[in-house]
Design brief:
Length: about 110
């Protein structure tokens, strides 16, 4: 289970960095100030380097196979199945009506 959690955290981090890179690119195209544009470009390059580090770590650990669909597909399928299983867990009592108060676990 820790391996599954670690791979999920790494994937979330990778996707967040990727979103940041995209946003830097957008900000660079919208910026008229050359000094700010250079600063954003420098930050974007650092984010690209971080993306490379995370990707390399995930490939090394066997959590990501960007060039091999046959190896990546079972990993993605397992992640999807785990997400469905988590969604089906009964985490809260059925009766949560406590007249405006938070539900408390049964003792």
């Amino acid at each position: 289970m820790p391996n599954l959690a670690d791979s999920a955290f790494a994937m979330d981090f990778l996707l967040a960095v990727k979103t940041g890179i995209r946003n830097y690119g957008f900000a660079i195209t919208e910026t008229a100030n050359p000094e700010l544009r250079r600063a954003l470009h420098k930050q974007m390059e650092a984010a690209i380097d971080l993306h490379t580090e995370i990707s390399d770590l995930m490939v090394k650990k066997g959590w990501l196979h960007p060039h091999n669909l046959k190896e990546q597909f079972p990993i993605d399928l397992k992640s999807a199945e785990t997400a469905v299983q988590i969604a089906q867990l009964n985490l809260f009592p059925n009766d949560t009506d406590r007249l405006g108060m938070f539900a408390t676990p049964n003792k």
